Amino acid sequence: MEVHELKTRKSGVHRHFNFHALVCGRLSVAESHAVCDEIEDRLEAEFPGSHITIHVEPCGHHGSALPSRCFRTASGKCEAK
User: Is CATH 1.10.10.10 the right assignment for the domain spanning 2-80?
Assistant: First the structure.
């Protein structure tokens, strides 16, 4: 998984995280959501009370080709070979 367009800010006692997460294009919506849940849980554990917005983008988004051997490893990591 790759993250880009990362924006963070702090407003009072709250931290805000906003970023795009590039995930394997062959993940289902439910699987992509589970990846985001894990990211949110980790950020929340490190920064309690955070507001987190993740924009999911599949590899191959915006007209780029899906790698011919895109697959998801047991850890959920997307790797193109």
Answer: no
